[in-house]
Amino acid sequence: MGCLFCNIIEGKIPSKKIFENDRVFAFEDINPQAPVHALVVHKTHTKNLDELTPENSHIMGDLFMGVKEVARIRGIDAAGYRVIINNGTAGGQVIWHLHVHVMGGKPAMGPMIIP
Ligand code: AMP
Ligand code: ZN
Question: Which among 35, 43, 82, 85 counts the fewest CB atoms within 10 Å?
Answer without folding.
Answer: 35
